[in-house]
Amino acid sequence: MPDKNINIDTDVILKYLEKTASPEEIRQLREWIALSEENADYFQEIRNIWEVATPAVDPEKIDTGKALAQVKSRIHATSQVPAKKTRFITYCQRIAAILLLPAIIAIVALMMKKDHQEPLIAYNEVTAPYGMVSSLTLPDSSKVWLNAGSTLKYPTAFTSNVREVEMSGEAYFEVHADKEHPFIVNTGDLKVTATGTAFNICSFAKAQEEVITLVTGKVAVSQENNIKHLLPGQQLNYQRASKSMEITDIDTYKYISWKDGILAFRDDPLKSIFNRLEQVYQVRFILKDTSINQFTYRATFKGETLDEILDYMGMSIPITFRTTETEKEGNDSINVRTIEVYKN
């Protein structure tokens, strides 16, 4: 029969919870708990506080809603403890408060993270087929023309402080004016920043240079910490190998006429003309005589096929074209026509 005069020191309860109590202390504690409902409630209250104060917390696995509800419940319950337990409960609360602080901070941080987490942004990617020009309107009403073989990646909605897109190949932009939300085009090497502007970017992956042509407004072109500003009628030429940037005054027409289906050549060297035709029609020119590079050519084409353009060139320049083979190129195994150029 349990001894009704048993008195249990709080240290025994703590040793029991820490699993360091002796068999005799455990026996006495169990007898004391069985003496009265008040003793059992007191022990349970101490054990609850102990368990809350010494959890193995993995913040990432916390159910924040449930955890906060439990904390509020525990605070409320503790406030109802009988007066004679106040000293010990207050002591335990202080321990619990110290140990719970990191967990509470983790809970609040996770809730804030969830509340302020950036929404996932979906992107569109558009590629213009070879031999064609594609046009589209962006979510901010800006308009873009993509030259043949060019790609533009942009978000389905502009939700941040900037309107940012990525491109490769050649694109002409008419940017909707919004000074509070700059429009940024990333080409890989360069970053072109505008607010309300019309400009052309030529940045093919295989080319040794990138060319930005400004038609209206103004843009800033940056390569790491090197920043250049363009005015209408100016063109920036960036050499990838040397990372140098040079600005010149030009006639913008021949650099943007492609968006209207026009190829405009203005006394351009044949090398640059062949490079242009390679980009538009996905062909490969092989010059069989280096002296061919000394020739220049002036013409405007709209709607002509590649063969028609080559026929016109052969009429006014002493050169001959010969198609030798069609090769597979790239991971997509695209047919690439190879054209050899001979001097007559």
Automatic annotation (TrEMBL):
GO molecular function, one term: sigma factor antagonist activity
Cross-referenced Pfam families: FecR, FecR_C
Keywords: Membrane, Transmembrane, Transmembrane helix
Residue stretches making up the FecR protein domain: 134-219
Protein FecR C-terminal domain residues: 263-325
Gene3D superfamilies: 2.60.120.1440, 3.55.50.30
The keyword Membrane appears for this protein: yes
InterPro entries reported for this sequence: FecR, FecR_C, Ferrdict_sens_TM
Spans through the membrane: 95-112
Protein name, UniProt field: DUF4974 domain-containing protein
